[in-house]
């Protein structure tokens, strides 16, 4: 009788748990896609999607193992708890049970091997040396991270004076990296001082920016097959690099290819209003394409490196 009541309680608890699990997304106003991302940002590249899929299925596998483990724990606690009529004898023991031990050894080994295989496959895709479609990347971008800002340049696009078109961040200007959608992009990065880290959350990965990568035997070049949609995204330095590390931000603007080509062309021309080459902000403003062409940073703020001013703000 007691065992029957215990099983009934387990069944009721299981039903409540299942109903709660199914109701959580609806009550939280989340879509299925949001739920299975398990907190990850929405990726905008194929590489990001491959990493998100790895994370999702790894989390689901962990939850399955967790549910089985929790079920076994609660089953043991409920059905084998001490009762008033117990005579003090122990339940049937299964130590030195060879089949059980083999199963408990084989299953974790298989799980680890499968996760390792999928991880290596995704890692190889992320670290590929050439675009998946073959051939060289459609666009090359050089990234320089320095204390405490960024410089982005296009080595294959010569601007005025023969120098590559580039964008340099300062204490007064948040640098904006302009990229095309639907084109493969090769990034090459370096640092002249300390280790920084190039991080765009929507790319779902970060890359450390090393000083003298050739001496440190670091691969400082990587490729994304494309950016899937237009948008404005905030980038950050994700490696503690000194006093103003927290302010070392930048923004990415992803434009459709025709707009990007027009942007690059403007950067090579002279702005008739200033008599100088178009700056990043001026070129974006001239495109007049709405939110994605905002001439200034829209999600981050410039910072002051005047330590006296900072001290006055703190004491004030």
From TrEMBL:
<dbReference type="GO" id="GO:0004129">
    <property type="term" value="F:cytochrome-c oxidase activity"/>
</dbReference>
<keyword id="KW-0813">Transport</keyword>
<dbReference type="GO" id="GO:0042773">
    <property type="term" value="P:ATP synthesis coupled electron transport"/>
</dbReference>
<comment type="function">
    <text>Subunits I and II form the functional core of the enzyme complex. Electrons originating in cytochrome c are transferred via heme a and Cu(A) to the binuclear center formed by heme a3 and Cu(B).</text>
</comment>
<keyword id="KW-0249">Electron transport</keyword>
<keyword id="KW-1133">Transmembrane helix</keyword>
<protein>
    <recommendedName>
        <fullName>cytochrome-c oxidase</fullName>
        <ecNumber>7.1.1.9</ecNumber>
    </recommendedName>
</protein>
<keyword id="KW-1278">Translocase</keyword>
<dbReference type="GO" id="GO:0016020">
    <property type="term" value="C:membrane"/>
</dbReference>
<feature type="signal peptide">
    <location>
        <begin position="1"/>
        <end position="28"/>
    </location>
</feature>
<keyword id="KW-0812">Transmembrane</keyword>
<dbReference type="GO" id="GO:0016491">
    <property type="term" value="F:oxidoreductase activity"/>
</dbReference>
<dbReference type="InterPro" id="IPR008972">
    <property type="entry name" value="Cupredoxin"/>
</dbReference>
<comment type="similarity">
    <text>Belongs to the cytochrome c oxidase subunit 2 family.</text>
</comment>
<dbReference type="InterPro" id="IPR001505">
    <property type="entry name" value="Copper_CuA"/>
</dbReference>
<keyword id="KW-0186">Copper</keyword>
<dbReference type="GO" id="GO:0005507">
    <property type="term" value="F:copper ion binding"/>
</dbReference>
<dbReference type="InterPro" id="IPR036257">
    <property type="entry name" value="Cyt_c_oxidase_su2_TM_sf"/>
</dbReference>
<dbReference type="InterPro" id="IPR002429">
    <property type="entry name" value="CcO_II-like_C"/>
</dbReference>
<keyword id="KW-0560">Oxidoreductase</keyword>
<keyword id="KW-0479">Metal-binding</keyword>
<feature type="domain" description="Cytochrome oxidase subunit II copper A binding">
    <location>
        <begin position="136"/>
        <end position="266"/>
    </location>
</feature>
<feature type="transmembrane region" description="Helical">
    <location>
        <begin position="100"/>
        <end position="120"/>
    </location>
</feature>
<dbReference type="InterPro" id="IPR045187">
    <property type="entry name" value="CcO_II"/>
</dbReference>
<feature type="transmembrane region" description="Helical">
    <location>
        <begin position="56"/>
        <end position="79"/>
    </location>
</feature>
<keyword id="KW-0732">Signal</keyword>
<dbReference type="Pfam" id="PF00116">
    <property type="entry name" value="COX2"/>
</dbReference>
<keyword id="KW-0472">Membrane</keyword>
């Amino acid at each position: 009788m007691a065992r029957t009541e215990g099983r009934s309680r387990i069944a009721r608890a299981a039903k409540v748990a299942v109903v709660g699990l199914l109701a959580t997304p609806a009550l939280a106003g989340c879509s299925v896609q949001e739920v299975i991302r398990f907190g990850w940002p929405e990726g905008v590249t194929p590489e990001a999607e491959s990493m998100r899929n790895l994370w999702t299925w790894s989390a689901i596998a962990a939850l399955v193992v967790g549910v089985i483990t929790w079920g076994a724990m609660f089953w043991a606690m409920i059905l084998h708890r001490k009762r008033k009529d117990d005579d003090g004898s122990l339940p049937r023991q299964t130590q030195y049970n060879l089949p059980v031990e083999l199963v408990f050894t084989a299953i974790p080994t298989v799980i680890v091997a499968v996760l390792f295989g999928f991880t290596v496959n995704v890692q190889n895709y992320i670290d590929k040396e050439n675009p998946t479609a073959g051939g060289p990347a459609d666009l090359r971008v050089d990234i320089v991270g320095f204390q405490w800002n960024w410089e982005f340049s296009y080595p294959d696009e010569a601007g005025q004076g023969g120098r590559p078109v580039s964008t340099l961040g300062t204490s007064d200007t948040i640098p904006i990296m302009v990229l095309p959608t639907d084109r493969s992009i090769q990034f090459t990065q370096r640092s002249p001082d300390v280790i920084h880290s190039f991080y765009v959350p929507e790319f779902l990965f970060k890359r450390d920016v090393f000083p003298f990568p050739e001496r440190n035997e670091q691969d400082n070049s990587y490729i994304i097959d494309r950016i899937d949609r237009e948008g404005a995204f905030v980038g950050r330095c994700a490696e503690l690099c000194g006093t103003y590390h927290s302010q070392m931000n930048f923004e990415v603007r992803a434009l459709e290819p025709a707009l990007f080509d027009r942007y690059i062309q403007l950067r090579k021309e002279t702005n008739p209003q200033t008599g100088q080459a178009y700056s990043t902000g001026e070129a974006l403003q001239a495109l007049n394409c709405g939110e994605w062409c905002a001439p200034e940073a829209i999600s981050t703020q410039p910072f002051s490196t005047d330590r006296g001013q900072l001290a006055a703000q703190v004491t004030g």
